[in-house]
Queue: 4 jobs
Job 1
Amino acid sequence: MYWKNAASAACLLLIAFLSGCGQPATDGPFDLLIVNARLVDGMGNPWHRADIGTRDGRIAEVGRLQGRSAARTIDAEERIVSPGFIDMMGGRTYPLLEDPDAAESKLRQGITTILVGEGTSEVPQNEDTIAGIPQAAALGVTWQTYAEYDALLEQKGLRVNVIHTVGAGQIRRVVMGEEDGRPTAEQMNAMKAIVRQAMEDGAVGLSTALIYPPGTYATTDEIAELAKVTADFGGGYFTHMRNESNQVLDAIREAIEIGDKAGVPVHIFHLKAAGEENWPLMAEAIELIENARTQGKDVTADIYPYVRNGIGLRSFLHPRHYAEGADKFIATLSDPEVRRRLRREVETTSDWENWYRHVGMNWDNVLVARVPDSLDKSYEGKPLSEIAEMRGSDSWTTFFDLVEARGVSVNPKSMNEEQKHLALRAEFISIDTDAWPMNVDKVSSAHPRAFGAFARVLAKYVRDEKVISLEKAIRKMTSLPANRLRLYDRGCIAPGMRADLLIFDPAKVQDKASFENPVAYSTGFDYVMVNGELVIDDGVSTPSRPGRVVGRK
C-alpha cells in the first residue's frame, strides 16, 4: 500500500506495533486528559472530534475518553488540538544556554521543537571561536563537542526540544580559519572527523550557508565529501544555497548534486527567488524540485512567510572581498577610493548574490533591523535612506559607515506574495522562522518572523486569505518536518507518540510582530505541551522545563 507521506506511514506503523506488541496500559489514570477537541492529527487528514489522554510524556490513548480518570482534565471546548510545531530553521541555542525563557518566542507561536545550525553551528569550537560567544564567557563554560554542549543545555533546563546539524562553515572556521583556499588532505580528514563526532553525538546532518564566508569558499566536492560522513548515520544535507536569486536554479542543482554524491537526502533552507526580476523563477524552482522527487531524489525545502529577508549588511558586498579575513577587509573601508571602487562593483555587476540589485537598487527598501551598541539604536526599524538623512549624509556613505561599524543586520524587501503562495501549496515545503529564541523583555529588535512566522501562516494564509487549508498548513508544521528529521515519535497524534501538543482557536491565532514593532509575542495558543508537560497553561507561562535535546534515531 502507498501512503501519502512517510510520516503518515510512521504514525500508522507505530499504531500497528503497539497493537501487536502491547499498548500502553489503559487501566491507570491519565496524567492529562483533553476532551471535546477538534483533532488535527498532523498527517493532512480532515479534523475530527476526539479526546486525548497522555501518560509519562506520551500520548496514551485517542478516542472517546470522557469520564476516564486523570490527574487533570482540560476541556478543549471545540478548539483545535494538534501536534506541536517543528521549526526547520530555529537559529541558535546560545540564548537558551543563558536564558531558558528565551524559548517563549517559539512557544507562543506553537513551536515545540527547533532545528538548529546553518553554516555556523554551536559545534565545533576552539579557543578563538568560543571567545566570540558572549554566553560562554558570561557563564564561564567551554565546549568542543555536542555531547558537552548538549549536557550544558539540559543542565540549564529547556522549555523547547532542540535538534542540531553541524555547520560546514563552522568546521572550516575551526580547521582552516576565515580565509579562502582548498583544504589539504590532512585538513579534510580533520573536518570529516568533526562531522563524524557530531553525528555520533546525535546531529542529524551537515548544514551549509554558501553565501557567507568562510562557507562560500567551499567547493561542491568538498561539501559532498563531508556530507558522505553523515550517510553512515542516516543523516542528511541541509543548505542555505549558494544563490537565491538569478542563479537559484543552478544552486538547487548543486544541492541535489551534493546529495547524489554523498548518498543523502537534501533539505533547502528558506527557499526563495529574491529580486523582482527573478520572482518568476520561484515556479521553476518548485518544478525543478518536484521533477527531482519524481526521479527518486529525496529533496525538500522550507520557507518563512515574509517578503523581506534578514541578512547582515556586509552581505551587500561581494564575498570574495572577505577571502583574507573579514576584519582585514573591513579595515580598508575607511579609504574613499576603496569605497568608490566597491560602489561601482555593486551598481554594475550581477555575477554574485547582489542584494542591492534585489531591492531595486533602492536604499528605501533596506530596513535596518539591528545595530551594535556603538551606534544610535534609533536607527533600528528605519530604512537606510532615512538613517542617511538623520546623519546628514548620503545613503552610500551611510552604508559603508554601517558596514565598517560591524554587526548591522538588515531586512531587504526582496520577495513577493505570489511565491509564498506557490511554496505553501507545494507538498514538500515546510515552515521555518530563521531566527533564534528570544525573550521579549531582553531584545530591542528582530525580524518579526522570530516571534510570528508560524502564527502568521495560520492567521494570514489559512484563515484570512485561504491559500491552503488548516490541515495542510499543520502538516507542513508537524509530520512533514518530523519525517525529514527522522523524528518518528513526534509530528502526529497517535498512541505512543511524544506528547508535544497544542490547543488553540484558529479564529484567534494572530502574529503581533511587524517590521514597525518587531518584538511582540504571537497570541492564541492557549495550551502548549512539551513531552507531556504544560509550558503554556491557559495562556500563562509555567516554570516547567521539559524540553530535551533530541537526536538522530
Job 2
Amino acid sequence: MSRPERLFPLFADLETLDGVGPKSARALAGLGVERPKDLLFLLPASGVDRSRRASVRDVVPPATLTVEVEVGTHFPPRTRGRPYRVMVRDAGLEFQLVYFHARGDFLQKLLPTGQRRLISGRIELFDGIAQMVHPDHVLRPEEAADLPAYEPVYPLVAGLTQKVMARAAASAVARAPDLPEWIDGPLKAREGWPDWRAAVALAHAPSGPGDLAQTAPARQRLAYDELFAHQLTLSLARASLRRGKGRASIGTGVLQARVLASLPYVPTGAQTRALAGIAGDMASPLRMNRLLQGDVGSGKTLVAFLALLVAVEAGGQGVMMAPTEILARQHFAGLEPLAAAAGVRLVLLTGRDKGAERAQKLAGLASGAVQVLVGTHSVFQKDVQFHDLRLAVVDEQHRFGVAQRMELGAKGVAADVLVMTATPIPRSLALASYGDMDVSVLDEKPAGRKPVRTALISAARMDEVVAHLRRAVAEGRQAYWVCPLVEDSEVLDYASAEARFQHLRAALGEGVVGLVHGQMPPAEKDAAMARFAGGMTRVLVATTVIEVGVNVPNASIMVIERAEIFGLAQLHQLRGRVGRGSADSTCLLLYQAPLNESAERRLTVLRETEDGFRIAEEDLAMRGAGDLIGTAQSGLPRFRIADLERQAALMAVAQGDARRLLAGDPALESDRGRAARLLLWLLDQDRAIRLLSVG
C-alpha cells in the first residue's frame, strides 16, 4: 500500500522548509524530526508574552518588553571586551540596548540613528538605568505584524535557535493539507475539538498560556489522534491474530468438576467470572488473546489450570510457560495435586532435561499422551511438537512481549493464548501495552487469605527485629529476609546478602538460615529454595530473586531491608510472598532514617493498603509511565503529544472508538476508514498499514 499523494509534501526533505539547511536538518534529527510532518507534532513547550507596550514604564523590570523606539546615539566600546551600547527612546523614557562582541557595521545597519524600530527582549535595571541586553527581535515598523503577541517557544538542541525553529515549524504548518475527519462525529462535537488542520495551526500559534495546556482543545485533539492511531494498530494486530484460524475448544466440565470437588474452598466470584470469560473465548472459532490480571494471591493459577482443563476436555493439549526454571518447577509443584485430582497427565520440560528422559517426554507430547506441559521458553524449540495444542498460558507478561505472542501463533499453532500477570497495571497503561488483548481481572482475595500486617521500622532498631525473629523461629515460624544487593560494595552502603546471612546465622544458629541470590548457580539456588520450602531452614536471606512466584505457605514474616530504595510495585510483590498460610503474617519495612519525601510516601502507601491496583495507580502518579514498566522492555509506545499519566481517560475512549470503527469496517474502506488510513500514515503506524494490506 503506497503513501497517499496528498501527504507527499509532509514527507519531503527537511531542507525544503524555510530556513533549514544541512546543518539545521542534522540538528533537528536530534529532536526526532526527520520529515516536515514530524515538526507538526513537535509542539511549543512554553511561550513568551510579546504584546506591545507604550513604554518601559509599563513594566516592572526584570521583564519581557516589546516597544517601539526611536534609535539614538551609538557608543562603540573604547577598549576590547567592553559592550557596545545604543541609546533608544520610547514614548516615555530613554534606555540602552547593550551588545557584547558585536560588529559595529552590523549594528549600524540593524539600528540606524534617527529611525524607528520595534524591539523585544528582556529589560533589566543596572545601577538604576534600564537596559536591554541583546534584544530577541529588532524589526522595522512595517514588519511589526510578523511578531506574534504571544511567541511560542520550542524545545531546542545544540545547533538550533528559536528563530530557525519558528520559521521551520511555520513552513511545515503551511504545508499541512485539509484532511477528511477520522474522529467519530458525535465525539468530536461533544468535546468541541477543531478539525485536524486547524488543530495543528492553533497548537503552533498559542495566544496565551491556556493554549499550551493539555486541556486546550487543539492539543487534546492531537493527543487523541495519537492514542486513536495506537489503538487502531493494536486492534488490527488483534484482529489479524484472531483471523489466524482459531479452534473452537468446548469443555465438558467433567475434569474441572473433579478439581473443584477436591478443593477445600470455593472459588471467588472473580475467579468464576474470569473462567467463564476464558471458556467463552475458547469455545469461539476466533483465537483468544486474553490477559488475566490478578494481584498477588488472587488465585490466578487455579483459573489458568481450569482453562487448561477446558483444552484437555475438548480433546487437546495445554501448555503453561514460565519465565524462569525456578518458576516453572514451582508451577509444576502447585499443579501436581490438581492434575492428580483431575486424572490428567502433567509433565515438566526445562532446559535441564537431556537424553532419554527428554526424548520420552517429547514422544508423549507428540502422541498426545501428555495432556498438560509446564515449561520455560524452551517449549519454543524446534524439536518440541504437540499432538494438538489448544491453549498456551504464559506467566509474567513483562518478560514476554507482543512479538513473542505473535511467534507463538507463527508456530503454525492456532492455540488460544492466555497471559497471566501478577503486576496490577493501571487501566491506562494496560490499554497502552495490552490494548490488543481482552482483560480479565481477579479483584477479590480467596477466602482464608489473611491480611498482612505491615510496619515501618528504623534500621536503628535492627536488634529488636532479630530478637523478634528468634522468638518466631522458636515457635516454628518461617521468615524471608530480603536484602538490596549481593556483595559488599564500597560505594553503596547497602547491607549485602552475604553479610546479613553471616550475621543472622551467628544470631540464630547454624542450619537455621539459608541464602539465595542472583549470582548463585541455578542448582544451588533451587536446593536452597527447596530446603526452605521443606522447612529445613527457617529463615531465607535473599535478594529480590524471590519477588515473583515463590510459594511457601508456612512463611509468615517478611523483612525488607533498606525498603526505601525499592519501588512500590516491587515492595508489594515481595510482601505478597507471605500471608499464604493459616498463620497471621507480618511485613517489616526496615528503612534508614531520614527518609526523603517520596520514599516516605511509598512506604506509607504500602502500610495503608494491600490493594495492588491502588498501589499501581499511586506508583504511576509518583514515577511516571515509562518507569513503571521499565521503558526499555515495556514496549510502551512513545507519544509526542499524548500523556499517558494525565490523559488515561482519553486512552479508554480511543480504544472503544477504534474497536467500533474496525468492527463495522475491518478493512478501513469507508470514508471514515480511509481518513483513518491517512492518520496511520501521518503517525508512522507502518505495522498497522502492513496488517491492512495483508488482511
Job 3
Amino acid sequence: MAILEMKDVRKFNGEGDQRAEVLSDIDLTVEEGEFVAIVGFSGSGKTTLMSMLAGLTKADEGQVLFKGQPVAGPSPARGLVFQNYSLMPWLTVYGNVALAVDTVFRAESRIDRDTRTRRFIKLVGLSHALDRKPSELSGGMRQRVAVARALAVSPEMLLLDEPLSALDALTRAKLQDEIVSIWEADRRTVILITNDVDEAILLADRIIPLNPGPRATLGPSFKVDIARPRDRLALNGDPTFKELRATITDYLMRVGGDAKNEIENTRQLPNVVPITQREALPSAYARAAASPIENRYLEFSDLKKTYPTRQGLLTVVENFTLKMRKGEFVSLIGHSGCGKSTVLSMAAGLSPITGGGIVLNGREIAGPGPERAVVFQAPSLMPWLTARENVALGVDKVYPRAIPAERREIVEYYLGRVGLEQSMHKLASDLSNGMKQRVGIARAFALSPKLLLLDEPFGMLDSLTRWDLQEVLMEVWKRTQVTTLCVTHDVDEAILLADRIVMMTNGPRATIGKIIDVDLPRPRTRKALLEHPNYYAYRQEVLTFLEEYEHGAKPSISSATPAIEKIASSSAKTAA
C-alpha cells in the first residue's frame, strides 16, 4: 500500500524573468514500510524535494499525497532530520528531545513523557550524555540527538536529508547501523537523501537517482536485491553489490557528464623557472648533493608529535617513519583523530615537530615554504578577489623573474586545466564549493611545488562533485608528476589516486599500521577501476584494516605489500 505519492510535481524558484524550474515532472510512489534512498548531485534539488515531502514548502504544480491526503504543512507523522542538526544550544540532550515530546504528546502524563524521552535517547546510545549541552557533544553525538528527537514523536515516516554527510567515516558507519536497527525494529517508512552510493546500497530497499538540473527529474529505480542484515565488509565481496554499485555509478557519471560542458584547454606553459626550483644552497653543499634524489626524496624519520594537556603530555603521533620516491603519490588513511592531518601539517611546516624529522629533497623541513603547496578541505580563498586573482597571488611571489605576461599564462593555464577557463574572472564569493576547490587545486599546482600536500581536499563535497574533481586532480598530476601526500578517509579515493596507501592506527600514539602498494595501471578512471579484477581485493585489504581498528586493534606494524594477485609490472604503470 502506498503511503506517499508525488504526481507530476514541479517546483520553481524566483519571480518573473528570473523564474527557473528546479524540479520537473516528479513522479514517486513509496510503499508503507519501504526504505528508499534518493541519490543526486549537489544543487540538483534534493533538499527542495525533501522539504515538499515534509510540508515545509509546497509544489507549484502537481500533488504530494501522504496516505492519500494532500500534504498541506509539517506534521509529526513525518519526522525530519536535516544535515545540520538545529539543536537548541541552551538545552541539554534531554531538553532537546523532551521539547518535541512535550509538544506532540501534551495529553500524556509527565511520567509517560519522561519515559518516552529517555527511551529514545537510550535508543541512540546517549543515556550517558543526558545532561550535556550541544556545545559539549561531538558532531556525531549531536546528530544522534536529532535522530532521537525525530523518532520520539513516533512518526509514521522518517525523512532523512543527508543526515550523515558532515560526519567522519567511523561515526557515519555507526549511525548507519543505528538507522538500520531503528528501521528494522518497527519497519516505519524511511526516505533517505544521500550522495553516497555505498550508503544507499547498505541501507535501502530501492535507490532512485535525482538527475541534475535545471529541471531536475527522477531517474530509473534500482532495486537493492541483497539480503539483510547487510555487513559493509562482507558486501565488498558480494557479486550483486559489485554489479549494482557499478551500474549506479556508471549511470550517475553518465548523466553528470551530459550535464556539464567540458572545455579542453590548449594553452602552453611559458618557459620560466620558479624560485622553488632555483639553486639556493651553499656551493659546497650543492657539489656534495649534485646527483638528483629519487628514492628517498621525502623522508619521515621517527616522527613524533605531542601536545601539553592538564594531565601531562599527550602523544598524538609517534614512530612515524616513511620514505617516498620522487613523483610518488601516497594516500594516508585512517579513522578520524588518528593523526593524519597532524602528519601533513608537520610536513607543511605549519605545526612544530616534537621528535624525529622530515627531509624533503635533501633539506630538513623547519617551517613553511613555497616549495610545499597545501590544499585544505576548505580552499581559503579571498572572497573579494576573482578566481584568477586568487591564483595570481602565489604565482607573482613564486615567479619573480617572469614577465607579467608569462605569469598570467601560468595562472590561466592551470585554471583552464581544472575547467575554470570560462569562470576565472568570477569573484570567489560567487563560486560553488566545487568551483572554489578547483581554484585551490589550480593555485597549488601553479606554484610548481616540490611537494603537494592534500588534506581531505574533497571532504566537504558531495560524492559526485568529488568524483569529478578526483578526475581533475589526476589529469593535472599526470602532467606534473609532483610528489604528493594526500590525507583521506575515503577508501575508494585512496585506491584511485595513490601508488601506495599508508594506513594509520588509531590515536593517541598513532603510527603506521600497514602499507599497501597499489599496482594498478595509470591513467586511472573510476569506471576502469570498478572493472579491474584486483580493485575489490585492495578495497578489502583497507576495509579490513579499518574494521579491526574500529574495534580497538593494537598496531602490528608492517610495510609489506599484502598478498594480492598482482598485475604484470609491465602494464602496472604506464607513462604519464
Job 4
Amino acid sequence: MRKLLSWILSGTICGGAFAASIDISGPKTIVADKIEYDIKTESIQTSGNTEITNKSGQRMTLRDSYISKDGTALDGDDIKIWLGQHVYLDAESITRDGDITIARHATFTACDGCDAYGNAWTISATTVRHNMATRMLRFYNPVFWVYGIPTLWLPVFEMPDPGVKHKTGFLMPDFESTNKMGTMINIPFYVYISDVQDLTVTLAYLTQENPLFKLEHRLNGEHSEYRTRGSFTRNRDGENRWHIFNNDIIELGEYARASIFLERTSDKTYLQKYGFYNSQPYLDSGGRLELFGQSGYVVADAHVFQELRSNGGRYSVPSGNILPNIRGVYQSAPIYQETYLTFGADVLGISGSGAASQRVIGDARVISPWTLWGGNRITASLSTRYDIYNFDNTEMVDGSEFTGLKNRFLPSGYLEWGLPLYRPATTWTQVLEPRARITAIPHMSTDQFALNNDSAGAFLSDATLFSDKRFSGFDLWENGTFADYGMRWAAFNNTSGKTVEVFLGQTYDFTDQNGTDPNSGFHNGASDYVGRVGYNNMKWLDLSSRFRISKSDYALRHMETSGRIGNSGTYLSLGHIWSQRFIDAQTLGKDTNEATIGAGLKLTSRWSVQWNGIYNLTDSGFHSHTGGLFYNHPCYYMSAQYRRDNSIKDDYVGTTTYQFRFGMSIDGQRY
C-alpha cells in the first residue's frame, strides 16, 4: 500500500473519458485514458491512448499496455517510440522481456519532420529486435524507403540505436578516382575501444593497383591527447610504400607541456600519388617541451626533416636536422616606473650532409617606455648579445670549409618616438600616428659566419619596420646603424565596427650593407617604400594589401593582396602575390605572379557549390584547382568533388581525381 500511495494520482473528466497521470519514481510519467494498478503484482495496465516518458526524456505512445513491476516487461498495440528529436519507431505491437524489445510490423526513421514533403528515409521491417545490453537494433526483412519510394531490400540489417555514441562496425564507404590507379573504394571499419580511445581501419580497394590499408588512432587522456594516422601498400612493382603522421600533446601540469610529432613517408611522391599530400615541401618530426612562468618561458625542441621537393636547392630551408633548439626568455618586474629587463638564451644545433654546427647565444636588454606631454611616446632600449659557434666541416660565407670555434659580441640600442593623434566623433574615430626609430649597431666586417644555418635572408615589408630584428633567424646579424620611420592612419566606425587603415614607411641604413640582395628591398642608404591598406565592413567585405615601391622610380616591386566578398555561404575570395625578381642589381628575371581564387554559392539552405584554384600568371596555367557540389540535410549528407593537380615530380604526374561521399545523420550525429 505504501508504494501505491507513493504514486501521485490525478484525474479529470474530459469528454466523458477518465484521464489519469501517474509519476513513477519521479522522472518517469504515464498518461493514459485509464490506468489500473495491481497491488499484488505491482504492475500497471492502461486502457486507451497511453503516453509513457522515461527518465532520459524519451517518449512512447501506445494503446492498451501492460507494464510489469520493475518495467522490464511491457507490451501494447499501435506503439510509437520517440528516440530523439526526429527519431521514432512505429509498430503495430511491441513486447519487452528484460533487455529484449521486439516490435512487429515496424517502421523506423530519423527524419521525422525534417522535410515538409515527407521523411527523407525510413526503414520498414516485419520485425525489429532491440537488445538493450548491446544497444543494437536488428531489422528483419527491411525495406529502405527514400521519400516514400522503396529503393533497397535486405534479409537482415543491424545498426546501433540512436543513444549509442560509439559502436564498432562498418562506416559508410566513399569512392574516388586516383592518379592513374583507377577507382579507389574506401571501406572504413570503426573500432570502439573505450570512451577515450578508438580507431578507424580502412581498406582502400583500387581497380588498377594493389589495395591500400589506412589506420587512424585517437586517444584522449585526462591531460593529454594522441593522434596517429598512417597507411601502407605493396604495389604491383613490389615496392613497399607507406606514411605515418603522429601528433601527441601532453599537459605536464599548469606550467609545462610536451609535444611529440612524427611525419615520415617511404618516398617523395607517395603522399601526392595516394591523396595524402597538402603541398607541404618537407616533413617534420621531433619533439617540444614548453615551460611557462609568470615572467618567462623556456622552449626546447628538436626537428628531423624529410625533404619532399625534387630539387631542394643549396639554400633551401630547412637544410639539416635541428638537434636541439632551446630558447628561454625572462622578463623582470618593473625596476623603475615602466622600465624592465629581459634576458634570453638560445642553443641551436644543426647537422646534415656531413656538416654540423652548434650555437649558444646570450642576450640582455633594458626597455624603458615613457609617455610625455602632448601624448608623445618615447621608448629607449639598450641591449647586448654574445654568440659562440662550434663548426664542423661547415661552409663559410667565403666558400671555405671550417672546423673550430668562432665568437662575436654585439651591443646595440634604439630610441623610438610615436605620437598617436586621436579625433573622436559620433560615427568615426580617426587615428593619425607618425612614428620613428633609430637603431645603433656597430658595423661588422661580415653579417654572418656560415651559409645555410637558420637564417633565410632578408625581405623588407611593413612587418619588419620597427621590429627588434629585421632579418629572419639568429645567424644573420644587423650590421650598422639604421632608422625606421612611417605614418599610420586608421578610422573606426563607432556604430557598425567598420575599419580602415593605411600605412606607409621606409628604413634608412647609414652604413653600406655587404652584398645587399637586390630582391630584398634593402639598399645602401634609403630602402624601398613599404606599406599596407585595409578595409573591413564587418559584414560582407574584407580587403587588405601590403606592397613595396621602388625608392628610385616609384615602380611597384612587390604586392600581396587578399579579399573576401560575401558571407559564409555565398562568397568570393581573391588572393594575389606579385614580386619583381632581379638576377642582379640591373638584370630582371622571371616575375613571381600567382593568384588564388575561391568561390562559394549557396544555392538553397542545403545545396551549395564551392571552387578554389591556384593560378600561375607567369606561366599562364593552373597549379591546381578543386571544386565540389555539397548537400547537407539534417538526416544525411553527400558531396561530389574533383581535384586537378598539374604538378609533375618523379613518378607522379598530376591529373584530375574525383571523390563521392554519402553518409547518414541521426539527431545531428554523422555515421
